[in-house]
Amino acid sequence: MTYTIKQFRSKRGCLSYILFDEQSKEAIIIDPSEEVPTDEYLKYINDNNLKVKYIFETHTHADHISSSKELKEKTKAKIVMHKNSPSKRKDIEVDDDYFIELGNTKIKIMHTPGHTNESISLYVNGAVFTGDALLIEGTGRTDFQLGDSIDLHNTLWGKLMILPDDTKVYPAHDYKNREYSTIKHEKENNPRLQLSKEEFIKTMDSHHPEKPELFDQAIEKNSQ
Ligand SMILES: [Fe+2]
């Protein structure tokens, strides 16, 4: 199983990805954003002769407009989201412990709620795409989109921190130009992972940062 991960970073720090199996050239796109020109994704797909099978949204994004619909039209790939997602754009609904295969590359889908009730993470041997559940030295907030601090704690410790220590962590956001982290680094350095369960829940429940700039517009557009 040999695969390649290509990261796309928008100016505001939204991260999206293309992962492809090197033998079959079958690919997935994860969390594409309008803030990255669609041509950039398409050029990479063409340059590498990729066949995009699925476009994953790790959840309905509240802070940027997704370009999954446009990329679906161009690539004929299917949009995949968790079954709890209210979004009308999903072609395939998934839940915990679903698997997809790109040639010999096997990808496990995990339901990782807490930031939202529909959040999913994608695990491939050596790497995990965590959406906004686990960020580099941070986590997503839990105060809207049916977020839940207890669920997020269970997700972090019951699903993500049990992955092998050297697993690379690819989140949906990073504002400090970092490409990825590892499970080990997060276990040791993520301030929210140093808290007891009680402290974590108290901290997250009282964490109400300002709503993202594009909140209303993003939720509305990304749900269609
Ligand atoms: Fe989010």
Description of the molecule:
The protein is of the alpha/beta class and about 220 residues long. The protein has a single domain, classed as Ribonuclease Z/Hydroxyacylglutathione hydrolase-like (Metallo-beta-lactamase, Chain A), CATH 3.60.15. About 25% of the residues lie in helices and about 30% in strands. A 6-stranded mixed sheet has the order 1-2-3-4-5-6, covered by helices on one side. Strands 7-8-9-10-13-14 form a 6-stranded mixed sheet. A two-stranded antiparallel ribbon has the order 11-12. Helix 1 links the parallel strand 3 (about 25-30) and strand 4. It is globular and about 50 Å long.
What is the level 1 CATH name?
Alpha Beta
Q: What strand line-up does the widest sheet have?
A: 1-2-3-4-5-6
Q: What is the structural class?
A: alpha/beta
Supply the number of structural domains: 1
Following the backbone from N to C, one meets helices and strands in this order, namely EEEHEHEEEEEEEEHEEHHH
> Could you state the CATH homologous superfamily?
Ribonuclease Z/Hydroxyacylglutathione hydrolase-like
Bound molecules: fe (ii) ion
Number of strands: 14
CATH hierarchy: architecture: 4-Layer Sandwich
Q: Which word captures the global form?
A: globular
Number of helices: 6
Biggest beta sheet summary = 6 strands, mixed
The percentage helix is 10-25%
Q: Might you state the CATH topology name?
A: Metallo-beta-lactamase, Chain A
Distance between the termini: 35 Å
Averaged pLDDT, please?
97
Percentage of residues in strands: 25-35%
Rg over CA atoms, rounded to whole Å, is 16 Å
Provide the low-confidence segments as ranges.
none
